[in-house]
Amino acid sequence: MASLSQTAATLRNALPASSIWIVGGLTLVLDFSRLQKPLKPLSELEGLHGLAARPSDWGLLLPFGEMRVDGGASPLYCLNGYDSSIYCVDVERESDEPSQFVNSSASQFIDCFRLINEFIHSGGHDVVRILKELEHCDGEALTQNSEWRRFLEHLRSSD
Q: In this structure, which long-range contacts are made by residues 34-42, counting pairs with CB atoms below 8 Å and at least 24 apart in sequence?
């Protein structure tokens, strides 16, 4: 398994500094500028100190990207320092589970991101096709509660 610094470098070299997705009337800005600096654990980020109930595993999650939704929600893409899987964490989500599984590894995140980015920028409408392609990249990325599945279901419902 690659070291965390190698994994962060792989993400930095493969992802754009930012990407804008317009989906169903929403503007999503995906910002990966955190990759330009050493990654810090989620538990050390400023602004989270006031949150009473933080899961104990937040010390293992290293934010490397953010999705800003029309100036509202800003969930964070995080690298799991234990197994290099990727999670999306919304610290403001009012649920028992503020983090959602995204991908099994950084390389699978890169592949899935590229597929969806190309799909959205090409004006794609065949969500079934992109679901099949994502399943080929990382079958676990489309589990019932995964962030990619939720996103694509939203995309399908906005057509």
A: 34/63, 34/64, 34/65, 34/66, 35/8, 35/11, 35/64, 35/65, 36/12, 38/5, 38/8, 39/4, 39/8, 39/63, 39/64, 39/79, 41/81, 42/76, 42/78, 42/89
